[in-house]
Write a structure and sequence with these properties.
Length: about 475
């Protein structure tokens, strides 16, 4: 049952309701699972590379300079910073909703009432003072202050503010996760660029070797020791190798521009280390224990904060079923003549409370409540998925580093053997003890093996970068 009372003051209509609470739908709850395995391998060392700042983790000064520029100029990162500012302003909005709102109002008007009406007849016979009739037309002047405040009985507004705070903190963690990914993307592209430089140098070395062999074959052709066929085959091999250098140069240009995009600048040469890429030694990375992921990975903390916010959203949606209590007050001065405005008789004030509650449109509130409940369950699954993904990423990179180390050792021995076989095959061919096809196959296999070795070294360096990112490193200042 509702009792309704209406008041009007300073243009504000106050409605007072007495409400009998209605039933609230049952909440479907799901708790998140935070358990992770005890270790990635059999090691129990808690030393974690993620706690090392990126400037200390990456020793290459050219790479650190690129990362430092990207953290200042990357457009996507700057867009995220504005999203953080938006989330911060949302907190201020929510905070203002449960604080009293105070405003000022001033107005002036004039009113002429018809004489042959009840109000006109009353005003015609009314004297303001003895012998002084009510002025006509009647002026009206008003100066006052008013305040409104919704009493947060069910913590609806406070929970909404807490939810906004959690989402703001989640946006900060999202920025940290973006920093981690940005650093790893630049480092991966940088090592790819160094690998391409090395491959280009290898191709040019092979062009010189193959050109020398071609000269020998032509001399043998002139001496009638071989036919035209070996000459053409070696010539084709030289042309094929020469074409490879332009493919690699195109890849170098694309890798440079990918880095330029990440650092927020137009295409230009990327300064880089001229040290032999094959001599780089991957950094030994300590993985710590999986439980440290919960503190180190920004995406896990972001998912956790979003989960906390979604739980608060459920409480906010639930509170909408209950009555809300509002208090409205006003005080001011009102008179038909400015000379009377500041007299005690012109003072007016009002104080009223109102209770409002949903009656007819409860289906819409139920739908909002059900959606908030579903989003909370969705956040639980997202949180668990993020933890699972983080663990798998680290486990994959740990295994990859170990396997690449063994693979690189074997490929190094393969390259050494094939490099020696080039000289052997050339000597045998010169002395007519080997077929020209053996020379061609040996050169091709040696080139491919050196390419594979450089590719493996690049994967090693990138695996170190990826495990640093997977552990949650890079975002700490």
């Amino acid at each position: 049952m509702f009792n309704r009372k209406i008041r009007n003051w300073l243009g504000i209509t106050l409605v007072t309701l007495t409400y009998t609470a209605c039933s609230v739908p049952t909440l479907v709850q799901k708790s998140e699972n935070k358990t992770v395995p005890a270790h990635y391998t059999n090691a129990q060392d808690t030393t974690n590379a993620a706690q090392v700042p990126w400037k200390s983790f990456f020793a290459d000064p050219f790479l650190t300079a690129l990362i430092d520029t990207a953290l200042q100029r990357n457009q996507e990162l700057n867009i995220t910073l504005q999203e953080i500012e938006i989330a911060r302003n949302e907190v201020r909005i929510r905070k203002g909703e449960y604080l009293p709102s105070v405003g000022l109002r001033a107005g002036a008007g004039v009113d002429k009432v018809a004489r042959f009406t009840n109000i006109g007849a009353l005003e015609a016979t009314t004297e303001i003072e003895p012998g002084k009739e009510m002025p006509e037309p009647l002026q009206d002047y008003l100066v006052g202050a008013y305040a409104t405040w919704e009493v947060d009985v069910w913590h609806k507004l406070r929970n909404a503010r807490k939810s906004a705070v959690n989402r703001y903190l989640a946006s900060v963690e999202g920025r940290n996760f973006m920093v981690t990914n940005l650093i790893s993307e630049i480092a991966e592209a940088y090592y790819e660029l160094l690998a391409l430089d090395t491959q280009l140098a290898i191709v040019r070395q092979n062009i010189d070797i193959q050109s020398n062999v071609l000269k020998i074959v032509r001399l043998q052709k002139e001496a009638a020791r071989v036919t035209e066929l070996p000459v053409r085959r070696f010539q084709a091999q030289v042309l094929h190798t020469q074409s490879l250098q332009y493919e690699i140069q195109q890849k170098i240009t694309e890798a440079e521009n990918r880095i330029n995009f990440l650092v927020g600048r137009f295409p230009q040469p990327v300064p880089r280390n001229t040290q032999a890429f094959e001599s780089l030694v991957p950094t030994v990375t300590q993985t710590g224990v999986p439980a440290q992921l919960l503190a180190n990975r920004p995406d896990i903390r972001q998912a956790e904060l979003n989960l906390a916010a979604s739980k608060l959203d459920v409480q906010v949606a639930r509170a909408r079923f209950y009555p809300s209590l509002g208090i409205t007050a006003g005080v001011g001065l009102q008179a038909f003549n400015p000379t009377y405005l500041f007299k005690p008789e012109s003072i007016l004030y009002s104080l009223a409370g109102d209770i409002t509650a949903p009656l007819v449109n409860r289906n819409a509130i139920k739908a909002v409540y059900a959606s908030a409940n579903a989003q909370q369950i969705q956040s639980v699954y997202n949180y668990e998925r993020t933890i699972l993904n983080a663990y798998i990423e680290v486990a994959n990179q740990v295994a990859k580093i170990s396997n690449l180390e063994k693979s690189y050792d074997l490929k190094s021995r393969e390259v050494e053997a094939l490099t020696q076989s080039i000289e052997i095959s050339n000597n045998l061919f010169t002395s007519a003890r080997a077929d020209y096809m053996e020379v061609l196959m040996t050169q091709r296999d040696a080139l491919e093996s050196r390419f594979d070795l450089v590719e493996t070294k690049m994967q090693q360096m990138q695996a170190v970068v990826n495990i640093y990112r997977a552990l949650g490193g890079g975002w700490r200042p």
